[in-house]
C-alpha cells in the first residue's frame, strides 16, 4: 500500500481509497461485477457524497434540499400565507395582485383586468368534479337523447355528438352557454343538474373548451368515443389539475416581479409541487391564459413599488 500524504478534503479521502486499491483488486475477482464497474459505482457514490468543492454535502446548508423534510417545511410555510387560505380545492380561478411585497386577492368582478404597472399570481384549477355516479350519467344520457347510441348495456357517445349537443344550446354562437341560455332551451330540474355537473371556471357560463375538456377527460383511451354507462360504473371524477400563472405588466417594478415569482413557487409548495407553473408577459400571453377570461383589458397605472417611500 502506498502512503497517503494529501493534506485534507476529498483529496485525502481519494488518496486513502487509492492506498487500499490493491486490496480492492485482490477482492474484485471474487465479485460478480468486473473491476471497472466496481470503480464506476464507487465514483458515482463519491459524487453523491461530495460537491465540486470537495466538501461533504452533509456539511453544507443545501444537503436537505428536495428531501421529504424540506418539502414539508416549505408546505407549512405556504400554509402560513393568509392569501392561500381555502383556495385550489375545487375548479375555479383565483387571482392575487402584488402590493407592497404581499399578495392581495383581486376582486372576481375584475378578473380579466390587468394594470400595466402590476404583477399578478393566477391559480387555475380543473377536474375533481363532474358526474361520478351511475344515476348522474343516466341523467346525461337522457339529456343527450338519441345522440347517445344505446346497445345492450352500452351507451356509446362520440366526440362529434357531444360537441353537437353544445352547438345546439349555444344560441348566439359565441362559444359559451350561459345559465340563462341553458334554461331557455332546456326546461326541468334534471337539465339544471346536468348544467351544474359540467366543470367550469365561471359559475354561470360553460365554454366550448370546457365542454370539450370533459369529453377528453372521459376518453382516456383517446378512441373518440366513450361509454357513459361504463363511466358511471367506475365512479371516478376527473383528476384535479392546477396551473399557476404569474403575469407581469410592461411597467411592473422589479420587486413586484420577484414577489410574483416567489409566491408562485410558494403556492406550488402548498400543493406538494404538483402544479404547472407559467410565466406570462403583457402582450405575449399564452392561449391557455387568455382562455381563462371572457375578455382581457390592460389598464393604466397600478400599485406602487414596495421600494417607493
What characteristics describe this protein?
309 residues; alpha+beta; Severin; Recoverin, domain 1; 3 domains; five-stranded mixed β-sheet; 18% strand
What can you see in these coordinates?
This is Gelsolin-like domain-containing protein. One of its GO terms (molecular function) is actin filament binding. Pfam families: Gelsolin. The protein has 309 residues and is α+β, with helices and mostly antiparallel strands. The chain folds into three domains: 9-59, no CATH class; 68-127 and 240-299, Severin; 134-234, Recoverin, domain 1. It has twelve helices and twelve strands. The protein has helices spanning 9-19, 21-27, 35-49, 68-79, 134-144, 159-169, 179-185, 189-197, 208-218, 228-234, 254-270, 287-290; strands at 92-99, 102-105, 113-115, 119-126, 149-151, 154-158, 176-178, 205-207, 225-227, 241-248, 276-281, 297-299. Strands 2-1-4-10-11 form a five-stranded mixed sheet, with helices on one face. It has a three-stranded antiparallel sheet with strand order 5-6-9. It has a two-stranded parallel ribbon with strand order 3-12. The longest helix has 17 residues, at 254-270. The radius of gyration is 29 Å and the shape is globular.
Amino acid at each position: 500500500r502506498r502512503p497517503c500524504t494529501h493534506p485534507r478534503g476529498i483529496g485525502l479521502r481519494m488518496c486513502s481509497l487509492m492506498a487500499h486499491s490493491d486490496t480492492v483488486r485482490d477482492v474484485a475477482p471474487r465479485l460478480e461485477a468486473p473491476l471497472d464497474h466496481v470503480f464506476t459505482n464507487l465514483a458515482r457514490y463519491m459524487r453523491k457524497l461530495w460537491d465540486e468543492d470537495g466538501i461533504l454535502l452533509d456539511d453544507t446548508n443545501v444537503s436537505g434540499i428536495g428531501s421529504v423534510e424540506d418539502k414539508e417545511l416549505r408546505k407549512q410555510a405556504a400554509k402560513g400565507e393568509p392569501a392561500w387560505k381555502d383556495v385550489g380545492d375545487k375548479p375555479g380561478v383565483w387571482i392575487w395582485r402584488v402590493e407592497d411585497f404581499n399578495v392581495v386577492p383581486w376582486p372576481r368582478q375584475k378578473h380579466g383586468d390587468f394594470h400595466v404597472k402590476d404583477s399578478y399570481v393566477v391559480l387555475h384549477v380543473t377536474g375533481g368534479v363532474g358526474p361520478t355516479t351511475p344515476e348522474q350519467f343516466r341523467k346525461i344520457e337522457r339529456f343527450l337523447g338519441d345522440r347517445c347510441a344505446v346497445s345492450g348495456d352500452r351507451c356509446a357517445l362520440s366526440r362529434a355528438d357531444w360537441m353537437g349537443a353544445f352547438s345546439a344550446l349555444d344560441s348566439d354562437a359565441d362559444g359559451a352557454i350561459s345559465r340563462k341560455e341553458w334554461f331557455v332551451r332546456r326546461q326541468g330540474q334534471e337539465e339544471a343538474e346536468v348544467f351544474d355537473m359540467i366543470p367550469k371556471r365561471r359559475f354561470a357560463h360553460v365554454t366550448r373548451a370546457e365542454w370539450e375538456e370533459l369529453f377528453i377527460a372521459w376518453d382516456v383511451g383517446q378512441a373518440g368515443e366513450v361509454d357513459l354507462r361504463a363511466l358511471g360504473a367506475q365512479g371516478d371524477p376527473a383528476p384535479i389539475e392546477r396551473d399557476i400563472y404569474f403575469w407581469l405588466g410592461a411597467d411592473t417594478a422589479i420587486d413586484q416581479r420577484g414577489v410574483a415569482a416567489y409566491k408562485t413557487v410558494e403556492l406550488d409548495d402548498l400543493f406538494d409541487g404538483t402544479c404547472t407553473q407559467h410565466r406570462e408577459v403583457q402582450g405575449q400571453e399564452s392561449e391557455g391564459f387568455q382562455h381563462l377570461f371572457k375578455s382581457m383589458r390592460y389598464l393604466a397605472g397600478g400599485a406602487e413599488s414596495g421600494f417607493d417611500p
